[in-house]
Write a structure and sequence with these properties.
The chain has helices spanning 5-10, 21-29, and strands spanning 33-36, 42-48, 54-60, 67-72. The protein is built from 2 helices and 4 strands. The chain has one domain (5-72). A 4-stranded antiparallel sheet has the order 1-2-3-4. The model has no long low-confidence stretch (mean pLDDT 96). It is α+β, with helices and mostly antiparallel strands.
């Protein structure tokens, strides 16, 4: 999985350290919703049953494969 330096830094935060690579890859491969931001980055959301079905948001760079940011999105609505 390709990642940015920003992702590697923020992943050390206590609220993100439990997010598994497997979950990130699952959301990228099979998102519930996918949107392109104005800056070209791509937002993907997916539910993580192992975490009480919480929504995980994955932000990819314009190339569609480099992970820039990942976090549980409390405001996600399907």
């Amino acid at each position: 999985m390709k990642t940015t330096q920003y992702f590697r830094y923020t992943r050390q935060r206590p609220d993100r350290v439990m997010i598994l690579d497997e979950w990130i890859e699952r959301v990228i491969q099979n998102p519930l919703r996918k949107e392109r931001q104005e800056d070209g980055r791509i937002r993907c959301w997916g539910r993580i049953p192992e975490m009480g079905n919480r929504a995980l948001r994955v932000i990819l760079l314009e190339d569609g494969e480099t992970v820039h940011n990942v976090f549980f999105d409390r405001s996600f609505k399907e």
